[in-house]
Amino acid sequence: MEFKSHPARRVIRAFLLTASIILVSSHALAQSNVNVRVMAANLNGNTQSYQPFAIRIFQGTKPDVVAIQEFNYTSTNGLGVNTPAAMREMIDTAFGTNFYYYREPFTGNGDIPNGIISRYPILTNASWPDTVQTSPNRGFAWAQIDLPGTNDLYIVSVHLLTSSASNRKAETDNLKVLMQANFPANAWIVVAGDFNADPRTEACVTDYNGYLTDFPIPVDQNGNSNTSMARSTPHDYVLPSLTFTNFETPTVMPSRSFPSGQVFDSRVYTPLTDVTPVLIDDSSNAQHMAVMKDFLIPVSGVTNPPTTNAPSITAQPQSQTVSPGSNVTFTVTASGTAPLAYQWLFNNTNIAGATTNSYIVTNAQTTNAGNYSVTVTNIAGSITSSNAVLTVSNTPPSITTQPQSQNVNAGASPNFTVVAAGTAPLSYQWFLGSTNIPGATTNSYTRSNVQTNDAGNYFVLVTNIAGSVTSLVATLTVQQVIVLTNQAVIAQWNFNSVTPDGSSSTGSTTPSIGSGTALLVGGVVINSSGFAGGDTNLDPAFTTDNTAWNTTAYPASTSANKTAGAQFAVSTAGKQNIAISWSQQSSKTGGKYFRLQYSTNNGTGFADFSTAATMTLATNFYAFTNSLASAPGVNNNPNFVFRIVGEFESTVIGSANANYVAAQPGSTYATTGTTRFDMVTVSGTSIITSSPATAAILSAPVFSGGQFQMLVTGTASSNYVVQVTTNLAPANWVGQFTNSSPFSFTDASLTLPQKFYRAIVQP
Hints:
Distance between the termini: 110 Å
Helix content: under 10%
CATH architecture of the largest domain: 4-Layer Sandwich
Strand content: 35-45%
Number of domains: 5
CATH superfamily of the largest domain: Endonuclease/exonuclease/phosphatase
Number of strands: 52
Oligomer: single chain
Shape: elongated
């Protein structure tokens, strides 16, 4: 409980009244008016403790007197739960340090006490027991409030039972007796809060007629008077006494006016700039809507009474730029009827304890940068200053765009780039592993003509006067293109137009070498263009005509693993040592992982090749070569089929992520992502089926010019080795010459001892 008694004010009132009687004969009375906004507020959520969304509604709607229900609060600064310090923190944050409050003395677990919050002093207060409750956890909280002028306001905060209409009527009957016994006759009275009444005709509302009144009925800007969270029932009321209704006035917001009072729903109210810092979904979290009625009350006095001036700001707080660690002081100068109360705000949120005409930020850091303002309040109103912007210079560097991992072919020149913010100038140093790279001192670094020894982890250190920051690691993977020797192309698809037309957006799926068929499987189709730019490294002959097969409509992220992609059929009859090579690229949202599969029965069943083709970037083609020389059934097969299909991450690298992932780090896989195929090539070596070579025949020797010469014949194209010995011993035959039949052999070294010659098939 917190309230403030003003006996001195009572004496002054009596004095002024006496003075006015004495002076009335020669002076006219003067009068001014003060607007008082009264609110019923059961705004907490299901936690039955006030949360930031409710705090923002209080801050934005600016009530003067609140009948609050379920008045519980947990400090955000370690001041406890429902302690006096915690409750003071809530009042200071939601309303201002110049507000008073009373909370019923309920302290048990599960209690939901009522309370009163007021801009004006609380003179007396108490809690009347609700005897209808079987297990009371709240009562009828009331307070006598010292309004400006000659009349006080008696307000009761209620939260009636949900159990039945008859119980709510009994509670109302008891409350009427208590008010009539304790409040002065003809007093200004308001009963406000959560009545839990479904229709407005329920007795707990109508039985006040003749004493309190529900009319006029507040509404939102759409004319809806219901106050439950679902906006289906009128649970909440502000019921003034008939003597007080004479002063009821429209509830005026900056852009709107509500003649009968307002039901505030942030989901409905526009523009929300009227009620900063309220967010559109704040009322979605509250149990009920706030209900408000405004009253324009007279403040009378003698002729030429002291002027009551609303506050005005004569010197605004000023924007400042400081270095980190500095102390910053914001100051405002204001005028108006004293006393003036101050509440400083940071980015439109109250700063706890900042309640004087100046506010100091100590040891300013980047987190303190932003907008500072102050609300100045007195008995006649309030005003908020303009924003003073705090800029903390010498900001340490921060990285806004990290360098990205890349997977490239040997010989490529990948580029790593970082985007950093912070106080200029920024310095950069790139690293490979733990070693800095000489000369790599800008925000981008290009590694030229990379080979496998250039693979590794790259990162950059960014430094300025205020500190430094290290980027995330970008991994460079370098793929060595495998070159298979003695391979002959069986079939190849370069997807270029059959007749070059100078456009990469047109092409053909007819093999450019050999024969075979190409089709898309698993629901994959060609993109809108069908074809797009191809791999200029592997197919550079017609750069302006270079084309790739551009595919899209891959399966949803978690369906159809290893079934969707591009399929090719080619005969390997007469060939062995079969190898498949191709180049492939995905868009940012296209698949990252693909698998090569093959079939030996014309596509009836497929087997996985053991290594997955991995896509990691959207801007590069990657070349792949896989040998199927040891795969059973692939060689010499007229029904050979292979396909390149998308694959889940879980089956590629063994993770738990059983879905497709995007090729570009930071992107999300999408079925609309595209994948391009180029230079799909099937190669192999011929299978030799001829009979074994026959024995060689040596012609009669011919001697000419001191040289010995003879003709060696045998099976055409077979290789024979001419051997020589001097003694016919089996171990002494020495090879002299190898060639394919037929060929001539010449021996120019005709020296003793004697020589014997023979020719045998090359082993």
